Amino acid sequence: MADREELSRHILVAGGGIAGLTTAIAFAARGFSVRLFERSPDPQEHGAGLQMSPNATGILDRLGVLARLRGAALQPNDVLLRDARSLGEIARVPLGDAATRRWGAPYLALHRADLHAALMTVASRDDNIEIVTGATVRDAATHPHGVTASVDVGGRVREAAGRLLALADVVWSANRRLVGAASDSAFTGRVAWRATLRSGAGALAGLIAPDSVNAFLHPRAHLIAYPIRGGASVNLAAFAHGPATDSAWAKTADVAALANAFSGADDALLRLLREAGPWTVWPIHTVDPASPWIDPAGIVTVGDAAHAMTPFAAQGAALAIEDAYVLAENVAAQPHAVSIALVRYERERRERVAAVARRGQLNEFAWHAGMPVSLARNLFLRLRGPDRLAADMDWLYGWKPPAAA
Ligand SMILES: Cc1cc2nc3c(=O)[nH]c(=O)nc-3n(C[C@H](O)[C@H](O)[C@H](O)COP(=O)(O)OP(=O)(O)OC[C@H]3O[C@@H](n4cnc5c(N)ncnc54)[C@H](O)[C@@H]3O)c2cc1C
To answer: Which pTM was predicted?
Structure first.
């Protein structure tokens, strides 16, 4: 009986990315002991920039992570939408202190490695969390008192037992099958291009507002540029149609294809694209939104493993952080009725995640609009004005975790 009681306070996590680390911290904060398995022997975040909106930074604050981002993260003054061809301003959404006042937590721009490092520091200093690196979760089986995972550590398979296994193991999760979902993700036909420039680089001058999230809209593509590393660098991310590539950022891309996607853009923007390299590309995959997320007996997906979506609302990592917190909140409220807690988690999260995915689709449609829709878009945004555009985001950025009943 004592063993069963002990097991009910023990959580297993597969994956040490943003979703997995936040899940571990959120459970440990509620008194659970957590064992997190990360496939990589030396886990680090690859990729570059992240926008972290207040719905997520509020949670990072509650978990003691936000304070560790000081210096590395900046609060951009605004989101500035501009036409890639004329460079004219289309709209501006105020951020900075106005975001903190409006949504109760800061809107940040930062390097993902800085967020990952902050999460890792908090998790590794927590006595309730054990992080096992070089450990790949290969399989799991549920039983009446919880779940047993098979973990490959250096070619030797070990078993680990817990009340719950949280799968936070990437959009390409092979373990999704454990909750009855297809393990395949779907390539969207779109790719992300990424480059980093040091602030003050000549090609940025007069083009990129250094304290803003700059978005240049074009009918076939868009480019986002914002400061990272406390303002020392500028993160550039462009999104366009493109062929499927390996699932890694490492691939160096041919800038001619990117320039072609932006054909007709202002010369200064095209020069920036040419001079900013080397660019890397990332194939954008999504997970079928109708896929199951849980096995109520004790397995649950969080973050991209559950609901990877296109990054057009810049919310994938933010939703992963929300998932982690809501999951821990629900399980802590009903530690002896985990099935009910998981069903409740899925119900609470599905509606929210679907709404954010719709917002991403709307952004893609509006941002890549050609004539005459782009004229109507520009007029609408101009008439709406900065304050009402900010108010339109209240449901997204002003979200707070529902207290588990
Ligand atoms: C170009 C681009 C821009 C984006 N911009 C933003 C943004 O501005 N804001 C935002 O909120 N989101 C953004 N996103 C989305 C965000 O990057 C993802 O949603 C987020 O990183 C998902 O985190 P995760 O922890 O679920 O997955 P991951 O970060 O992929 O982590 C998964 C971890 O699991 C490990 N793993 C995999 N399999 C196993 C296994 N079997 N056993 C153990 N470990 C395993 C992996 O090694 C990895 O460490 C963007 C995405 C892209 C592509």
So the answer is: 0.96
